[in-house]
């Protein structure tokens, strides 16, 4: 195989995320325009919460000042401890449970929500040390958290989420409205 053929093959190979995860979206989280979240759902039920590529944090060359998993005085997502095969001890989250707060260098603050019901398995502590991961690799090393839905709810958790096509339609309509008002 010559170099050109090899490059073509590499360019067409889907990423691990595209191969093994289904992307779901939550647009305009809690009514806040463009605050879009992405949920990557694996066939084993695990869900990875990430920022959608349209989220304001990833736009306009913003930089991240801080990421805080301390949700309230009595609740820190960093204190989440799971153990055993059935992942006992993980904090139970509802659809709108805050996972973390991200403050950008321009002092705008964004709350990232779980978007689905389930048990919090882990938060990504790597983004605390290297916040740029969130911006450079939001779907992989820059993820926010991993959640395991209850087995009996694993089919229904996506009812309130959008498919990629539905999300693209929402984003397209959003940009049409913005271009009309400009």
UniProtKB/TrEMBL annotation:
<dbReference type="GO" id="GO:0030833">
    <property type="term" value="P:regulation of actin filament polymerization"/>
</dbReference>
<dbReference type="Pfam" id="PF01597">
    <property type="entry name" value="GCV_H"/>
</dbReference>
<dbReference type="InterPro" id="IPR039169">
    <property type="entry name" value="Abitram"/>
</dbReference>
<keyword id="KW-0966">Cell projection</keyword>
<dbReference type="InterPro" id="IPR033753">
    <property type="entry name" value="GCV_H/Fam206"/>
</dbReference>
<protein>
    <recommendedName>
        <fullName>Protein Abitram</fullName>
    </recommendedName>
</protein>
<dbReference type="GO" id="GO:0030425">
    <property type="term" value="C:dendrite"/>
</dbReference>
<keyword id="KW-0539">Nucleus</keyword>
<dbReference type="GO" id="GO:0030027">
    <property type="term" value="C:lamellipodium"/>
</dbReference>
<dbReference type="GO" id="GO:0030426">
    <property type="term" value="C:growth cone"/>
</dbReference>
<dbReference type="GO" id="GO:0048813">
    <property type="term" value="P:dendrite morphogenesis"/>
</dbReference>
<comment type="similarity">
    <text>Belongs to the ABITRAM family.</text>
</comment>
<dbReference type="GO" id="GO:0003785">
    <property type="term" value="F:actin monomer binding"/>
</dbReference>
<dbReference type="InterPro" id="IPR011053">
    <property type="entry name" value="Single_hybrid_motif"/>
</dbReference>
<dbReference type="GO" id="GO:0016607">
    <property type="term" value="C:nuclear speck"/>
</dbReference>
<dbReference type="GO" id="GO:0051489">
    <property type="term" value="P:regulation of filopodium assembly"/>
</dbReference>
<dbReference type="GO" id="GO:0032433">
    <property type="term" value="C:filopodium tip"/>
</dbReference>
<dbReference type="GO" id="GO:0051015">
    <property type="term" value="F:actin filament binding"/>
</dbReference>
């Amino acid at each position: 195989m010559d170099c050109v053929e090899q490059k073509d093959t590499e360019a067409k190979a889907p990423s691990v995320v595209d191969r093994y995860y289904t992307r779901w979206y939550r647009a305009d989280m809690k009514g806040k325009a463009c605050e879009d979240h992405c949920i990557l759902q694996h066939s084993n039920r695990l869900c990875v919460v990430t920022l959608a590529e349209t989220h304001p944090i990833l736009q306009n060359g913003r930089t991240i000042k801080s990421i805080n998993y301390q949700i309230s005085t009595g609740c820190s997502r960093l204190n989440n401890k799971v153990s055993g095969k059935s992942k006992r001890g993980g904090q139970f989250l509802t659809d709108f449970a805050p996972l973390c707060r991200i403050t950008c260098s321009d002092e705008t603050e964004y709350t990232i929500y779980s978007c689905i019901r389930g048990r919090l398995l882990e938060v990504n502590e790597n983004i605390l040390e290297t916040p740029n991961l969130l911006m450079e690799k939001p779907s992989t090393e820059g993820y926010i958290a991993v959640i395991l839905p209850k087995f009996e709810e694993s089919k229904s958790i996506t009812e309130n989420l959008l498919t990629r096509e539905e999300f693209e339609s929402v984003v397209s309509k959003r940009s049409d409205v913005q271009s009309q008002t400009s």
